[in-house]
# Entry
Amino acid sequence: MSEYSVIFPSYTIGEQAYDKVKDICPRYGTKVVAIGGKTAMAKVRELLLQAVEGTGLEIDEFIWFGGEAAYENVEKLKEHKSVQEADMIFAIGGGKAIDTCKILAHAIEKPFFTFPTIASNCAC
# Structure
């Protein structure tokens, strides 16, 4: 049996965490695609748009992740023009949405940043 490892970056938590977007994300490019759950994206959309304001970052599109953490949804997301052209992915929501984005980011070799909306499921 062969070993397989994926190493994910560190994280920021706290009431001012969205303020760190301007300090961390611009070094990875300018084009952002936001992917997540419908409710989660509706709740954080304005917070994220404010977080990127004046940074040179542009969120091109907010895309629903598909509802289930499944390779089929990863494959569908790969086909989106916004995903293909993005420099980075903002993963928004709970565990299913964020896990889908983690696999997507790994598959297309793009950095991702998580914005969990449910702390109890360890979505980070």
